Amino acid sequence: MEKNNQKASGGIMYRMIVIICIIALIIAAAVGVVFIREIKNSEKKNSDSLSGTTLKSDEDKTTDLPEGTSEDTSGNAADNLDRYDRIISQMSLHEKVCQMFIVTPESLTGFDVVTASGDATRNCLEQYPVGGLIYFSANLESMEQAKEMLSGAKDIQKDLGLIPLFYAIDEEGGDVARCADALGTTSFDPMYLYKEMGTDTAYSNAKTIAGDIFSIGLNLDFAPVADTWSNPANTVIGQRAYSDDFSETAELVAAAVRGFSDGGVYCTVKHFPGHGDTAEDSHYGTASSEKTLAELEQNEYLAFKKGIEAGADMVMMGHITMTSVDQLPASVSKTMITDELRGKLGYDGVVITDSLAMGAVTEMYESGELAVKIVDAGADMLLMPQDMKEAVDALEKAVEDGIITEERINESVRRILILKSEKMQIE
């Protein structure tokens, strides 16, 4: 009996030892798993930390970020650049500066009148790959010729591997209607005469104009006029305006913007901060406004704000000297472009100038000086400088001399590329 008790006791002891060993092994395994996880987490943290330092892999070392681009520390910097930054990083300063200009084909080629896109256009676009071309009635002889000229320009752009261009025109209806006058597209009375017909008519007129110019090959209209004809003595705007009432202008301009967009073309609200109250014509000399910023915000800004909210693709700066603000033409005024248009109105799209061949600015500045002042003030595109090459050279030199940063140039080019990609294929 005692022997049997001893055997039973020994068996129980053996089982306990086995159980204890198994438990010990389970605990050891669990500790091991936790330890391994901690090592892996530590390695990951170290790896993440290194990605934010100056250490790079061999592949990373070959990739430099374009000026104005923040490095993303989540991986290879090049993989984190968006498509616009990638394009900008591959462009020379000259190419970027040229992208900021819309010029006449005559200014580009040096010919008196251009009615076809041939070798001269090709050679000059290769030297000066501008952001766009603007056409006038003199360039338009017939529907067939106009389509062939524009198609030819697009073929040249593709052959040269250039960023697609804006092909622009002033087609407001009424007295400013290049295509209607030269090619017989739909003719309209001045927009002011439709004001009693409301927003539906403003929309349909704009959509018809857009469809007409799109069918020819144009893709950008410098319309609608967002000025309000508030000064009866004003002749430069007059019946080009949609109304003589600020609130009504705002509603009609917004409808027109939607019409242009639905018609397939880019559109531009003009001439910020408002040209309808001036007595002078900025085409021939200084045109001034005594409006204060507070008065502009209550009145003139209404149509621009509504147009922007409706989806206007560009805002055109007028050359109106703001005597109660800074005594500068709005097109070279940092207060009007950066503080008011971008800051107060919250607009972050493409800002373009009115023609830089107009007396209001040519009487005050040479082409090069004017170009630098415009970009420094915050505009993105320069329309029709009196001397394109001088303007391009001046901007490049301003960057080289540190007057304007290349980051500032990149900022404008980025806005232009984003806008172009909405209706054009950007490679």
Brief digest:
The protein is an alpha/beta fold. The protein is built from 18 helices and twelve strands. Helix content is 51%, strand content 10%.
Q: How does this structure look, described?
A:
The protein has 427 residues and is an alpha/beta fold. The protein folds into two domains: 2-74; 83-423, TIM Barrel. Helices cover 51% and strands 10% of the residues. The protein has helices spanning 2-51, 58-61, 77-80, 83-89, 93-98, 105-109, 119-127, 143-160, 178-183, 198-216, 246-262, 293-298, 301-309, 334-344, 359-362, 367-377, 388-400, 406-423, and strands spanning 101-103, 132-135, 166-169, 171-173, 176-177, 220-221, 266-272, 287-289, 314-317, 320-322, 350-353, 382-383. The protein has an eight-stranded parallel beta sheet with strand order 11-9-7-6-3-2-1-12. Strands 4-5 form a two-stranded antiparallel sheet. Helix 7 packs across helix 8, helix 10 (198-216) packs parallel to helix 11 (246-262) and helix 11 (246-262) runs parallel beside helix 13 (301-309). The longest helix is centred in the N-terminal third of the chain and has 50 residues, at 2-51. The N and C termini lie far apart (96 Å). Mean pLDDT is 87; it is low at 1-9 and 39-80.
